[in-house]
Amino acid sequence: MSGGTRLENANPVIFQRSGERLLTAADEDEDVHDPIDDREIFDLIRSINDPEHPLSLEELNVVEQVRVKVNDAESTVSVQFTPTIPHCSMATLIGLSVKVKLLRSLPDRFKIDVHITPGTHASEEAVNKQLADKERVAAALENSSLLEVVNQCLSTRSI
Amino acid sequence: MRGFSSFYMGTMAADSGLLLSLVEEFVSGLQDSKAKDTATAVKDGQFTVLQLVEALGVSLTSSQPHTRARGVQMLSEVLLESYGNLSEKEVEVLIAFYENRLKDHYVVTSPVLQGLRALTKCKTLPPGSAVSMLKSLFQDVHVQSLMLVERSCVYNMLINLMETREAELKGLGADFVFGFVQSMDGERDPRNLLLAFQIAKNIIHRGYDLGKFTEELFEVTSCYFPIDFTPPPSDAHGITKEELIEALRAVLTGTPKFAEFLLPLIIEKLDSDVQSAKLDSLQTLTACVSRYEHKDLAEFLEGLWASLRREVFQTSSEKIESAGLAALSALTSCLSRSVLNSDSEDSLSTFLEIVLKDCKHHLCEPDLKLVWPSAKLLQAACSASSRASHIITSAVMPSLIEQYDNRTQCSHRRTLLEVVQRFIQSVKNSQSSENEESVFLAFRQSLCSMVFSALSETNSSLQITATSVLTSLAQQTGLLLDADIELAVDHLIRLLLTEEDDRVSCAVVECAGALAELHPAAFITKLIPRLKRELFSEPIEEGDENRRTSELHSHHAVRQRCLSALAAISMQPSVVQESTPVLLEVLSSAHTGTVRFSVEEMVLACRSLQRIAEQVRDTEETGQCFHDIIIPRLLSLALQAALQDQGSSGCLSPIVEEVVLSAMVPVISTSCSRLQPMLAGQTASRAVSLFLDGDVSFLPDNSFPSNIQLLKKQQGDSWTQSQMVCLLMGCVSSLPRSVEVPQIDRLLSQLEEMSCSCNHPLSYMSAAKCFASLVNKRPLGDCLDSLIQRMMNRVCSELDSASSPIRIQAFTLMIWVAKALLLRYHPLSTALTDKLLSLLDDADLGVMAADGFSLLMCDSVDVLNRGCHADIRIMYRQRFFRENSAKLVQGFNAAPQEKKPNYLKALSNIVNKLPKQVQVTELPALLSLLLEALSCPDQGVQLSTLSCLEPVLIDPPAALIQQLEALVSRLLALVGSSVMNVRIASLRCIHALSRFPVHEILPFRARVLKALARPLDDKKRLVRSEAVQARGEWFLLGSPGGR
Amino acid sequence: MKEALSLLKRISAHPDSRCWFVSWSPSGTLLASCGGDKAIRIWGREGDSWICKSVLQDGHQRTVRKVAWSPCGNYLASASFDATTCIWKKKEDDFESLTVLEGHENEVKCVAWAPSGNLLATCSRDKSVWVWEVDEEDEYECVTVVNSHTQDVKHVVWHPTQELLASASYDNTICIYKEEDDDWECRATLQGHTSTVWSLSFDATGNRLASCSDDRTVKIWKEFPNESGQSDLSWMCVCTLTGYHGRTVYDVAWCRLTGALATACGDDAVRVFKEDTSGDPDQPVFSLAAQVNKAHSQDVNCVAWNPKEPGLLASCSDNGEIAIWRFQEQ
């Protein structure tokens, strides 16, 4: 982020991070099968970096656990995300990061749907359609400048 | 030249044949070594330098520049070796010669400079020669047209002269600075830059007159700012970017005279997109303002503030943020140093007004992003000085308090409270003296009601934050009144008794501990009695089953919190005097059955006593308390329980439970390890006479039988008395080495007997440990040797007889004594470890022997550690490893297939505990064996090997990289293990591999990504989570924006 | 019903990648596949097994999205995300790169050979459809660029006998083109799908066109004589298959030998529909004749009927596999 650039939304609302998931006895029991649940999916995406702010998607409330639905048995995941402002130009990029994170982190049996929370973005339908088009997603990930931004969103922050 | 020739003509030496041939061979024969020979001869006094000059005469006046150069070179090389022997007169002549030669052909310049450099090192430099040398240099040589080495020569001359001829150089006035500026202008080599920066730094710090060349000196150095240098891959000089940064920074920040140039430059560079440039600028700013006065800053304050604010508001990097905050702090503290006088404006308050104007309103938006950067900026300014903290807190606190009162959302209140908390902490740093009145005094009332209201909320995060604010307030000198403390204690009691959230009760306990240290009285009068009442009340026995269970459950939780609170508050002796009797009463009531306590609660009571023993301040006063009361009470209770007639009541006292008794041991051993020598000695002799002779005179409730024999074999293998030996271990194993244990030989022999004959594990194990820890501290000598020898014979004969019923006991004694001897480098330890190695092939004890290596290498918790004053030599692990790794490898190769895992396990147990550097150096030799261990079917071996590999992988040695193929294959195979922990550990190793040099691991990327797809669907969440992290990192490898 | 479609073979065709498309050679003896690994593979049957005859690498810098055989079977065209189309020429048992067609601004999504073999069509995310002419010297020349769609063009397909071209798009429509005065023009825009149209297939006669879409339906379109007598063509939707597909339908294939209609779907299933021939040809009825639910472990991207052997079906998937099926009517 260069000194001179103006952010679209310089002072966004910040939300508290949820704590680490507490370890249960069942988690450590070899014989128990732990199903993939909403919280697990949420944990995958909450720490994704926002492309603009030094904040996570969770801190900006772009992703929330209540907007994550997973059905382990049927192998489906659906995530809704909420851009910080209705005209956020980063919406597609954020959605793409969420989708890529899930593609890299979930077993390939899963069908992954990523949408904008209804009514929260001016170009909701267009963004949703793009994110659902796997051919466009595949092509986007072969575009190195786009992939670079996505990878940065998915990196653990350093410097 | 003429003067020079006349000089040497007159001093021609007779014996010059050898010298002439040396000169001849060097100058025309091009034999470089002859210069060295000549130098040696000069140093030995065979020739003088002036004789050399005479001999060189023809070459020096030759019409061929190359011959002249060669001649000068020989002279210079000799001077470099022998400058220490020159007389002032000689130096004077030589300088005149060299100065003259500076005007000569360019091929001569290099050796001339070498010679001059040698002369600058002379102690005998005649007055005025430094100045004349430099004048000629600056006048006749264009430094930047010279080669790298020659430039370096010039800088070194300057450095040498600055060391010895400071006054003379200063006499040159600003001409010196000008000459230097011209010399370094355009320098590009990092090595030379380091020298040039050093000269510039000397000029500034040693008060040379900059005259009208201040800006020139700044320009010629600041053009390198910020340093952008990456050492070439095979850099032989080892110059780092950091060195250059530091050297340049010392120049730029060295004088306030640079302020008018440096500050605009910093503002400009802060605008850069390059992170390292920003960081360097901020750090340079922090460094320079420490030398500045407010008037140096005045005209740049607004610009600096705008940049700092932007960096903190918009940054994506924590490093830059904290550098920005540090710079603001330094800036504020510079302004705070200005002396106030009536006619000038107060630049500190003017500056802070701007800061407040830009930041304060963000504090009123506790849900927005900028609340934190704003708070941090204000706090950074606040921490700079006492005056700054007054200005800022008086501006900020009222509105924060008002906000808090008006906001209803817990998250907003919590943010506000945390902001307040950080203000209190930032002020703590700026308070100049302990006695200074707190800047928060004016807000005491409001702050207290804020904290108490937050403590009364149901939101746990808010409560937790409130406890830390309360702690901070209590730490402000004289801020809280007694009444406030009492109220605080009431709140803490209420939360302790009712709050079920673990995080809250932890915070409450911690807060109680901090407050009790500062204000013990309220805790003694209010909290301890209240907790005691709660501890000794019994759960209500009414209602249905479910209600009773949940009642019991919460009752237990309350007791748990009471017990840990009692430990936390016991820092001051006055508190300890009141809290420990309560804890002892828990144990005695449980023993007599007057109040029921669960075993777990008894263990917790012991833990609390142990914690008090560890943390308590005044060892004298409280030592007495432990010695006189606590240890005798514990021994007495345990003895009563052990002797209790089982027949009458039908059930045993809970004190004989192994967990309870084992929890008492560290109470005793911790307090013994910290006792005054006299008290410690007393405790030891009391304990020994109790155990050897049944002397119970020092115990309270003295109604014991007279014929107690605790260390003798009991009838019918009863263990209630024999296991008391663990308390003996507590008493005598942790004493300082200076304390003598009475009747030691008798004691050792009975302990040995018990450890070899008893069938009760706690008893024989404790006897063995006690024996071993006494052996560890026994003075060297025949007495000790024969003791060990006797024990070894006995143990070995039992171990060698496959049918012996006490092989396990013998093994236990052996391994503990082996540890005791190993720790102190006793020569007999080898015999024991060899025995241990031989047992790796044993059908019954093989696995135990392999695990035994872990016992040898690990720090033991209860005995033979530093806390117990054991005799432990540094690096005993490395030594053990060195002596035994080859034997293990040999044993492995010779062992039958089914025994091999034992060797691998033993090896990985050892390697696991070696320090990182040792692992790295030893790894190449062991790598193939460790890789073999990874494919060993024994899951314990796999796990132990993985855990020893993981830390090594963080910074992989070359040997590991060569074996990457084998390593990757084996790790990937283990990802499919049936054991969860093996899967987790192997995934962590694969994660660590992702940080290897990219070009080494890139070939494995596709394979790893594919293999890690499967564990993403593991049935265990913990495994999936490791797989996700590892796979995520491997995806980033070789990918844009990744790595 | 399940027995109607039986698995003959699974081939791990593009391991660690996705297999986007498969195409039978006109003689039905070879199968070409392409995928995310930037490669094209040629498969041939030897007894019961399928052997990889050649791998065409280094032609493309990015994903190869589709491949098409020339009607003579001697050329292969490949469309790639690298914005180029590659023409490969068969040489003995191998293929060599003949030429690279450049011009599209970004990803080329599809390539198709006209029945004559003289024309080639390509389409791209740049919203355009290009028609190329091939001469005897294997020289390719772009004759037309048509910009009738408002979004990416996903697929192009030629009429089985006439020089008529159809394209499917992200803008939810299908366009039909014909040449007029040396220029190709869009003569009909078929609207009806409510989301991206992914693929198209003509029946054996070319009178009807099947389309499949992200709206989870398959539609059958039929050409009707133009009443106004103008040059525009009139195509109407005569049938919509809804309720069968659980997610996006990525491909549809109409068998020219049996008339069976196969679909590839994002719900991992392969389905085959048969037409009830007794009905009104203007209101055809299709019924599900076979369905394999877990035909692949991931999305099915493509289905292709063998042009010579009735009932032989190939499918491919995101997991990189090809499956060969036998469809037999009960």
Automatic annotation (TrEMBL), chain A:
All residue ranges annotated as the MIP18 family-like domain in the record: 39-114
Keyword set, alphabetical order: Chromosome partition
Gene3D superfamilies xrefs: 6.10.250.1280, Fe-S cluster assembly (FSCA)
Superkingdom as given in the UniProt entry: Eukaryota
InterPro entries to which the protein is assigned, alphabetical: FSCA_dom_sf (IPR034904), MIP18 (IPR039796), MIP18-like (IPR002744)
UniProt keyword annotation of Cell membrane present: no
GO CC annotation terms, alphabetical: cytosolic [4Fe-4S] assembly targeting complex
GO BP term, example: protein maturation
PANTHER family: CYTOSOLIC IRON-SULFUR ASSEMBLY COMPONENT 2B, CYTOSOLIC IRON-SULFUR ASSEMBLY COMPONENT 2B-RELATED
Function per UniProt: Component of the cytosolic iron-sulfur protein assembly (CIA) complex, a multiprotein complex that mediates the incorporation of iron-sulfur cluster into extramitochondrial Fe/S proteins. As a CIA complex component and in collaboration with CIAO1 and MMS19, binds to and facilitates the assembly of most cytosolic-nuclear Fe/S proteins. As part of the mitotic spindle-associated MMXD complex it plays a role in chromosome segregation, probably by facilitating iron-sulfur cluster assembly into ERCC2/XPD.
Name this polypeptide is given: Cytosolic iron-sulfur assembly component 2B
Organism: Channa argus
TrEMBL record, chain B:
UniProt xrefs under InterPro entries: ARM-like, ARM-type_fold, MMS19, MMS19_C, MMS19_N
Cellular compartment(s): Cytoplasm, Cytoskeleton, Spindle; Nucleus
Transmembrane segments: none
Record SUPFAM superfamilies: ARM repeat (SSF48371)
Domain MMS19 C-terminal: 562-993
Keywords, sorted A to Z: Cytoplasm, Cytoskeleton, DNA damage, DNA repair, Nucleus, Repeat
Major location category of this protein: cytoplasm
The MMS19 N-terminal domain, residue ranges: 53-314
Alphabetical list of Gene3D superfamilies matching this protein: Leucine-rich Repeat Variant (1.25.10.10)
GO-annotated cellular components: cytosolic [4Fe-4S] assembly targeting complex; MMXD complex; nucleus
GO biological process per UniProt: DNA repair; iron-sulfur cluster assembly; protein maturation
Keyword RNA-binding carried by entry: no
Subunit structure: Component of the CIA complex.
UniProt function note: Key component of the cytosolic iron-sulfur protein assembly (CIA) complex, a multiprotein complex that mediates the incorporation of iron-sulfur cluster into apoproteins specifically involved in DNA metabolism and genomic integrity. In the CIA complex, MMS19 acts as an adapter between early-acting CIA components and a subset of cellular target iron-sulfur proteins.
Family label: Belongs to the MET18/MMS19 family.
The protein's name: MMS19 nucleotide excision repair protein
UniProtKB/TrEMBL annotation, chain C:
Gene this chain is encoded by: CIAO1
PANTHER family reported in the protein's UniProt record: CYTOSOLIC IRON-SULFUR PROTEIN ASSEMBLY PROTEIN CIAO1-RELATED, WD40 PROTEIN CIAO1
Each WD repeat, start to end: 22-43, 57-89, 101-142, 146-178, 190-222, 293-330
Cross-referenced Pfam families: WD40 (PF00400)
Signal peptide, first to last residue: none
Function, as annotated: Key component of the cytosolic iron-sulfur protein assembly (CIA) complex, a multiprotein complex that mediates the incorporation of iron-sulfur cluster into extramitochondrial Fe/S proteins. As a CIA complex component, interacts specifically with CIAO2A or CIAO2B and MMS19 to assist different branches of iron-sulfur protein assembly, depending of its interactors. The complex CIAO1:CIAO2B:MMS19 binds to and facilitates the assembly of most cytosolic-nuclear Fe/S proteins. CIAO1:CIAO2A specifically matures ACO1 and stabilizes IREB2.
SUPFAM superfamilies referenced in this protein's UniProt entry, alphabetically: WD40 repeat-like
Protein family (similarity comment): Belongs to the WD repeat CIA1 family.
Lineage: Eukaryota, Metazoa, Chordata, Craniata, Vertebrata
Name by which UniProt lists this protein: Probable cytosolic iron-sulfur protein assembly protein CIAO1
One BP annotation, GO: iron-sulfur cluster assembly
